[in-house]
Specification:
28% of the residues lie in helices and 29% in strands. Strand 3, helix 1 and strand 4 form a beta-alpha-beta unit. It is built from 9 helices and 11 strands.
Length: 290
């Protein structure tokens, strides 16, 4: 089965506070875009002689130049972990194996959710190839906070750590310019530097869903610009001085914890990227609906 795994941007990201378990409670609106990884997934009989009780996964990774060399090509890759977890949950560790081929276009450590999207695509493919199996949402949530969103795609409100997903009506299709610096930003370090208060009250999912459905339904670029918020931007700028310069223009935004920058629209002369260093790639993309 061949399928695409899209990147995402955060149209809105608010940190409500730090929970008792140490994680942060988020209200975030995610949007898939047409920067994609390509995946081929095959479910097959387990190789003769492969160890019992262990996942039999053949993984091939190709990278485009934009990606760099820091994407793991072994069992640490989230796509491989997704295949392993699905085989275990489906009770097929001793009967089936998986072949994975991944063409990586989405940079890692960039706030675009590429690894999470790959994992969700693998889960979706295996569920389709097997004509059903274990429930995908718990597997996705165990793999990472963004993985459940990518099972849905399009535009969605995400609560909790991001794992509680409610699809909402998407804004009008829009173009955006991505700025990809030649450095990544480790997400844990940004959250560690975030001075968030202790969470006092849990958000009401229905109220938030109604609120964002009203604000985003067919919203144009001007409306998206007024909605944008990212509470991870201040600690990311503090930790990584180059971001402070790159985010000088109010039109330039940070996706998640970064390092990817984006702006709405594609007119480069008005983008705020014109003074950016030559090491930052500029790529035009569009929103990608379900």
């Amino acid at each position: 089965m061949k399928l695409e795994a899209p990147a995402k941007i955060n149209l809105y990201l608010e940190v409500l506070g730090r929970r008792e378990d140490g994680f942060h409670e988020l209200v975030t609106v995610l949007q898939t875009i047409d920067l994609v990884d390509d995946l081929e997934v095959a479910l097959r009989p387990k190789t003769a002689g492969a160890p019992a009780g262990q996942a039999d996964i053949d993984f091939r990774l190709d990278r485009e130049s934009l990606v760099g060399a820091d994407v793991p090509a072994d069992e640490r890759n989230l796509a491989v972990r997704a295949a392993r977890d699905w085989l275990a949950a489906a009770g097929r560790l001793d009967s089936h194996g998986v072949d994975l081929a991944l063409l990586k276009r989405i940079p890692s450590g960039a706030g675009l959710g590429g690894g999470s999207s790959d994992a969700a695509a693998v889960l979706t493919a295996l569920d389709t190839l097997a004509s059903g199996g274990p429930e995908l949402q718990p597997l996705a949530a165990a793999l990472g906070s963004d993985v459940p969103f990518f099972l849905v795609g399009g535009t969605a409100l995400c609560l909790g750590r991001g794992e509680h997903v409610t699809p909402i009506e998407q804004p009008a299709c829009f173009e955006l310019m991505l700025g990809l610096p030649d450095f990544g930003v480790p997400t844990p370090s940004v959250y560690a530097a975030l001075d968030a208060p202790t969470l006092r009250t849990q958000p009401n999912p229905r109220e938030h869903a109604r609120h964002w459905a009203t604000r985003l339904a067919q919203a144009d670029v001007d409306a998206l610009e007024s909605i944008y918020r990212n509470d991870l931007e201040p600690p990311a700028r503090t930790l990584h001085a180059p971001l402070d310069d790159l985010l000088e223009s109010p039109a330039v935004h940070l996706s998640g914890s970064g390092s990817t920058l984006f702006l709405f629209g594609s007119a480069e002369q008005d983008s705020g990227f014109v003074c950016a260093p030559s090491s930052m790639r500029r790529i035009r993309h569009r929103s990608k609906n379900r």
